[in-house]
Every structure is written in C-alpha cells, then in structure tokens.
Write a structure and sequence with these properties.
Layout lengths: L2 E11 L6 H15 L3 E9 L8 E8 L2 E8 L4 E8 L6 H11 L1 E12 L2
Antiparallel strand pairs: 1-5, 1-6, 2-3, 3-4, 4-5
Helix pairs in contact: 1-2
C-alpha cells in the first residue's frame, strides 16, 4: 500500500509544555515510534514577551516529510502536525503524548491518501 499520511492534533495537556528537554524527547520519541527518519531538528523557545505568550516549537525535517510540534503552556495546549509519504501507526503518538504531557482533551484529524 502506497500513500501519504497527514496527522493533525490539537491537545489540551496537564504538564511540562514549557520543559524544552521534555518537548525535544517527545519529538524524538514520535519519530522513533513511527519508524520515520529525522534528517535535521530545529527548535525555538518563545519567551513570555512574544505576542502569543511563551511556548516551544520543534521541527523535524524527515526523509519522509516533516514533524512540527508547538506548545502553548499558558493555555495547556500542544499542536502536532506530522506528514509522511510513508504510512505510520498514529496510536503510539497518543500514548507518548499521555506519557510526556498528560492528555485532558484530544482533537485529531487523520488524513490518508493512497496512490496505487
């Protein structure tokens, strides 16, 4: 089966959204759990003085496409955007979010396009 898989998630979380080490570890764990290949990682910590408040953004440039994670600790919010030209099982991602941040609400959109 060939195809593209795009996963979007908006998550209300309980903890550690302002912990850079935790957010980076979560991003690495998502890449490992999905079997995708990271080519480069960049991150930015946004201070409280930014227009949207404090937060962390982590981007993984993947051989298969990209992973973007954004946190907004003041709102207990995490956004995840994972796109891949290869299929992956998103179930492991929900487990990892719970382990790293605690989930209080999860809105997700799985978009799968298959090309034969």
């Amino acid at each position: 089966m060939k195809g593209q898989h795009h996963l979007l998630a908006d998550v209300q979380c309980r903890q550690d959204l302002d912990d850079l080490d935790n957010v980076l570890a979560f991003a690495e764990a998502v890449v490992a759990a999905t079997g995708l290949t990271s080519q480069k990682t960049v991150f930015q910590v946004f201070p409280n003085g930014s227009s949207f408040g404090p937060g962390i953004t982590v981007l993984h440039l993947l051989s298969e496409s990209h992973l973007a994670i954004h946190t907004a600790p003041n709102r207990s919010y995490l956004n995840l955007d994972l796109f891949s030209c290869r299929e992956f099982d998103p179930q492991a991602i929900w487990v990892l979010i719970g382990q790293h941040f605690g989930i209080t609400r999860l809105d997700r959109w799985d978009l799968l396009r298959r090309h034969e």
